[in-house]
């Protein structure tokens, strides 16, 4: 099996696992079935495993200079140093989506383990939301060629284009992953709140876990924003951060939201 086949099959089965998780969650709640709840929980872990395989396949393709892949040819080259080759994984949209999906799946697996003894009424909708969120990413990558990191170009160039000089900075290794950790982390309190709402839980028992996840996501976003601001200052000079790509400024919006949410959860818990 080639790297491309392994990556695409893993994405396809990950999407299928997400669908199974959604139906398992709905069926568990409607039929009050512990076995279907177990199916929903297992689907989260399968999603994590399958997306891990996809990530490994893409990383192997990058390190082996497999320029048959449009993504590898567009963001890597033979002469690119190892550190930047690794960061080429998230240099473009397809790789960024895959990294984001994998981080969210890992966090979802942790949540699935932590809440396994929670009431089924709240656990099922929480798992359903996580399965839907995790399954959405592989669906996007499979149905839209421009979002698929395993898309074949048809013509294999002798060398890749490499990353643009602006991205060849040490900050590239840490800045995007920190932001994606923050984005993925903010999905968890939403899922916990949704589970409490659908499950009819009116107490504040779910709030401490939601606050911890929100705080962790906020810290990742803060670190990513500070690193990105410093990077923009070095590359573009004073004020460059605010005039740069919308991706940089867009990270402030969830940061402001997370800041407000942290304070709201503290007040709600009191």
The ordered string of helix (H) and strand (E) elements is HHHHHHHHHHHH
- Give the domain tally: 2
Uncertain stretches of 5 or more adjacent residues: none
State the end-to-end distance. Answer: 56 Å
For the largest beta-sheet, the strand count, sense and barrel status come to:
none
**Overall morphology:** flat
Strand residues, percent: under 5%
Number of strands: 0
- In the CATH hierarchy, what is the architecture of the largest domain at level 2? Up-down Bundle
Question: What is the CATH top level name of the largest domain?
Answer: Mainly Alpha
Q: Roughly how much helix do the residues carry, as a percent range? A: over 70%
Quickly count the helices: 12
Provide structural commentary:
This protein has 270 residues and is mainly α. It folds into 2 domains: 1-165, Four Helix Bundle (Hemerythrin (Met), subunit A), CATH 1.20.120; 169-270. The protein is built from 12 helices and no strands. The protein has helices at 3-31, 34-63, 70-75, 82-87, 93-114, 120-143, 171-185, 187-198, 207-236, 240-243, 246-250, 252-269. Helix 2 packs antiparallel against helix 5. The N and C termini lie far apart (56 Å).
């Amino acid at each position: 099996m080639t790297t491309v086949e392994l990556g695409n099959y893993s994405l396809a089965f990950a999407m299928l696992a997400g669908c199974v998780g959604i139906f398992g969650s709905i069926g568990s709640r409607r039929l009050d079935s512990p076995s279907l709840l177990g199916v929903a929980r297992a689907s989260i872990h399968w999603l994590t495993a399958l997306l891990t395989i996809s990530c490994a396949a893409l990383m192997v393709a990058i390190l082996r200079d497999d320029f048959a892949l449009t993504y590898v040819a567009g963001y890597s080259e033979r002469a690119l140093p190892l550190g930047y080759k690794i960061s080429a994984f998230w240099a473009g949209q397809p790789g960024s989506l895959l990294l984001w999906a994998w981080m969210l799946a890992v966090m979802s697996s942790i949540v699935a383990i932590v809440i396994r003894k929670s009431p089924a009424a709240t656990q099922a909708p929480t798992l359903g939301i996580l399965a839907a969120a995790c399954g959405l990413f592989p669906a996007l990558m499979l149905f839209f060629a421009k979002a698929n990191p395993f898309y074949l170009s048809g013509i294999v160039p002798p060398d890749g284009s490499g990353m643009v000089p602006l991205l060849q900075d040490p900050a590239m290794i840490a800045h995007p992953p920190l932001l994606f950790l923050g984005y993925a982390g903010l999905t968890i309190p939403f899922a916990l709140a949704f589970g409490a709402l659908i499950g009819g839980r009116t107490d504040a028992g779910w709030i401490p876990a939601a606050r911890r996840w929100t705080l962790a996501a906020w810290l990742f976003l803060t670190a990513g924003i500070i690193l990105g601001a410093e990077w923009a200052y070095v590359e573009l000079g004073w004020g460059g951060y605010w005039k740069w790509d919308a991706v940089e400024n867009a990270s402030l919006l969830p940061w402001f939201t997370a800041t407000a949410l942290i304070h709201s959860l503290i007040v709600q818990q009191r």
